[in-house]
Amino acid sequence: MPLMLSRNDVDSVLSMDACIAAVETAFGELTRGNADMPQRAVIRLPEHKGLFLGMPAHIGGDEEVLGLKVVTVYPDNPAKGMPTIFGTLLLCDPKTGKTVAIMDAGYLTAVRTGAASGVATKYLAREDSKVCTIFGAGGQARKQIEAVHLVRPLEKIYVLDKVVATRDAFVTDMSALLGVPVEAVEDAETAVKAADIVITASSSHDPVFDGDWLKPGTHVNNIGSHSPDARELDTRTVVRSKFVADLKEANLAEAGDILIPIEEGAVTADHIYASLGEIVVGEKPGRENDDEITVFKSCGLAIQDVSSARVVYEAAKAAGVGQSVEL
Question: Which of 49, 69, 130, 242 is catalytic?
């Protein structure tokens, strides 16, 4: 019988450090050709401002895993008192096809997205990075900061969010969790100019800062936008950057942050320097000097989900967490 795991179950067993390690390995396996991950299926519901995504993946090797995540993204949900993202993940035994776990994937999505930014930050941010500015203060933003802090211990965090209650809760909770001063600000220009690392985790359809504000050596994790006609980064940011995709093909299929500058003629597809896995396995170097402006564009990949789900499943079995159900 498959193991049913609630959001609280997943929360209780999935640590960020374990997720970062699993996601880093998954990016490497994808680049080595040891993973099968079709382009995710997308249904757009413009009348509801929503996305419905189907994301299957198989990763081979010693830690073989097979699964499918169904996830929805509704940016207007927080104003209705609901999360932006809902998800469910089906984990199967790759040897028999048997369903072994069904788990909530809303929290898992936030953690694995943070973990990918953690991996990117590890390879692309300056080692002396101490100040981070983040746009957005929701669940995704919290996991972004947690992951970045693990790989680049921060000394100061600035947060911007139009929803004051969400922003203020972020300040209180994250300063207590990390033991780092977190300050709510409204002046984006000053906050960006002060940052070593900038994170965009908003629901904005349009750029959230001016690329000329970025100082040399800044690293940007760009994770909030999810469609070809939306972007959080302006063209100037993209032009100035060494641009790294989670996966080049995924970015060119659905990431407005790079597609819009390409459509404008400001850059070509070749401006994408690498997929993250190429850097993880050493095929291409990450940061090469302290003056580079680096950007990591995350669309979100199914390999992140299934590798993280395997961590959850194994930890849940060891801890006796979850409930066996008969289908």
Answer: 69
